[in-house]
Amino acid sequence: MTVTGASAAPPLAASTWFNSAPLSLGALRGKVIVLGSFQMLCPGCVTDGLPQLQRVHDSFDRKQVQVIGLHTVFEHHAAMTAVSLAAFLHEYRLSFPVAVDEASPDGPVPVTMARYAFRGTPSLVLIDGAGRIRFTRFGHEPDLQLGAAIARLIIELNPAKGEADSKFSQL
After folding, report:
1. How far apart are CA 20 and CA 159, in angstroms?
2. Distance (Å, rounded) from C-alpha 1 to C-alpha 26?
3. Pick from 18, 135, 168, 170: most CB atoms within 10 A?
4. CA geometry: angle at 5 spanning 112 and 109, to 5°?
């Protein structure tokens, strides 16, 4: 996982949302955001990235952690329609919010993908409660490392409570 310089997270540019009303990063301040970009036809996304996002969504308190999938279509545009994505999300039982990255008028790379300088899919970004990018990763991040990074960011939201609540503080 790459630690970033804690720069402000750019806004999401989404043309459509699934599993949620439209979300904005500003409205999610105070929560850790796990943003995962994917494409339906990306093997690594299907086998690793999306199942991991679902596990994070199912495992962490939604009052503290918000998972957002970002469908970033930069190739095979004709096959990657909203209708196809709706069927894909249903088939794979993905229940976290998913935004469709807004198409760019300047080329094949969609707007949010360009803003975050994603190199491809799957890509993962952790945004802290203050709206700063704290970690980025292109490719798969092991679950334990991702979980530990999310836990650190949760503790930063309320350090005193995090220390008191830790099951492992006695070890």
Report:
1. 30
2. 24
3. 135
4. 20
Average pLDDT in the 123-146 region? 96
Residues 1, 134 contacting (CB under 8 angstroms): no
Q: How far apart are CA 128 and CA 132, in angstroms?
A: 5
CA 138, 139, 143, 148: dihedral to nearest 10 degrees?
-20
Over residues 54-70, mean pLDDT? 96
Question: Quick one: tokens of 132?
Answer: 């700063």
Q: Both tokens of residue 33?
A: 């955001």
pTM for the predicted model, two decimal places: 0.88
In whole angstroms, what separates CA 90 from the centre of its chain? 18
* Cβ atoms of 38 and 69 closer than 8 Å: yes
Per-residue model confidence as pLDDT tens digits over 111-121: 999 999 999 99
